[in-house]
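Q: I have 202 residues here and want to know how they pack in 3D. Can you give me a structure?
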Amino acid sequence: MKKLLIATTNPGKLTEIKRFLGDLSVELVGLKDVGITDVVEETGKTFEENAILKAKYYCQKSGLPTLADDGGFEIDAFSGQPGVKSHRWIHGDREDTDEELIAYTLEKMRGLPRAKRGAQLRLVLALIFPDGRQYTVEEKTRGIVAEKPSKYRTSGFPYRSLLFLPEINKYYDHDLLTPEETETFNHRKRALDRLKPILLAL
């Protein structure tokens, strides 16, 4: 069976990607499965640059077709911040904890009316093959920043506890969404679905 390396150090992201690609007849492996412990410095200025940087690095390191992504939270009122700094928005020199990011975001948004609380989760997936072929797709899920966080938490995805989807009156949390709502709103699933025709040819 062919292998696909899912190049992420985020356990929650690895689990989600494996779930959404579980119908492929491909062995899905993580970095630990292939003995890679390196952490790539994300020096890109955009999600696309970082996704490609990670996919290329781990593809060269493993010799396997490699899928990597980069994404984050973009708040309209802050001109798209935190963006590529979504997990280092507060301290910069280290990754912020989920709870730090939730509390910090709510404090910065305090007092803003609903009309100015627009935000989105956006990601870019990069798929790199050892022969140099390269594919990228982008997807996003829009909503508003709630005034209070959801009582649910998904480790590694702090902003999902803040992004509220008015269309369905729910927070953007995988455990709260029905399978049909996941099809419609989960931006990572939609991005992966767009890559599946290529992955089916592995």
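Q: Anything worth noting?
A: The chain has a mean pLDDT of 95. The chain is about 30% helix and 25% strand.
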